[in-house]
Amino acid sequence: MKCLLWIILPYSSFLSFAAGHLWRYRRDRFQATDPDAETDRSERLGAMAFRLGIALVLLSRITIALTSKPDPPGAVYTATFAVKVVAVPLTILGALVLFGPSLVAGGPRTIVSPVDRFTLPMLTATALSSAAVGFAPDPDDTEYHSATMIFAWFRSLITLHPLPDTMVHTPLPYQIRALTLMVLMAIWPYTRLGGTFVAPVIRALDRLRNRPAAKTPIALAHNISRQRPGWRAARIIRRTVDDDASRGEENSSAAMDFSLTAGARPGGRS
């Protein structure tokens, strides 16, 4: 059971996370459920709130991981706790606004999968486990006890030297926290929230890739003439008038030459 929970399940979650993103990219490029300019304003605001909440949560967790030390709680602990108090409800609220109505009522525009219906309970469980870890008594009387347990175990997974015993001896709230994070990571790409971060990056790269190359002055002038038909018409009229004037000058000079030639003929009259 120890290897199943703290070695096999985490690496399976990593594999599902990577394979799911690749599958979604090849299937719909994360555009099926990503709010864009054509969607409702509420969905765009929900996506913005969700992204901001997740970013604040990650920022606070990274700060805890980098500043964990056996000292009494200080300013860093207070700041990260305040950030999490704001970020966690913001994340849940953004998720509810983003796809809550579709889960409740459904709709012809989207198909709600069983994984989507499982997402909100998992987000709620993740938020509650975070609160349980934050208010759990610290048996070692050290700051950021989760940093010495969950983060040490997670770093051991990244370095391919897993330490399952680190999590076996942790209190139950920390174990529940780690398991909920692993399950949420495994199902993330297959939910309606999977494109909230990746889809904007893909759209930005597509715009950069499809941006037209720098045009020459001739091409720019041609483009301007196409975009400003009135200016082009005025230019054509001016050119026609100039051509008529030059043609009239040529005709008058030709008539003058003819008259001079006729007067210079033998027997001609002055």
From TrEMBL:
Task: Please state the protein's primary subcellular location.
Answer: membrane
For this record, an example GO cellular component is: plasma membrane
* Chain spans, region Disordered: 242-270
Mode of membrane association: Multi-pass membrane protein
Q: Where in the cell is it found?
A: Cell membrane
GO MF annotation, one: heme binding
Arranged from A to Z, the UniProt key words for this protein are: Cell membrane, Electron transport, Membrane, Oxidoreductase, Transmembrane, Transmembrane helix, Transport
NarG-like domain span:
4-201
Biological process annotations from GO: anaerobic electron transport chain
The protein's matches in SUPFAM superfamilies, at most eight in alphabetical order, are given as: Respiratory nitrate reductase 1 gamma chain
Keyword Plastid, does the record have it?
Answer: no
Membrane-spanning ranges: 6-25, 45-66, 86-106
**Do you know which PANTHER family this protein is assigned to?**
NITRATE REDUCTASE PRIVATE CHAPERONE, REDOX ENZYME MATURATION PROTEIN REMP FAMILY, RESPIRATORY NITRATE REDUCTASE 1 GAMMA CHAIN
Q: What is the protein name for this chain?
A: NarG-like domain-containing protein
What is the protein's species of origin? Nocardia terpenica
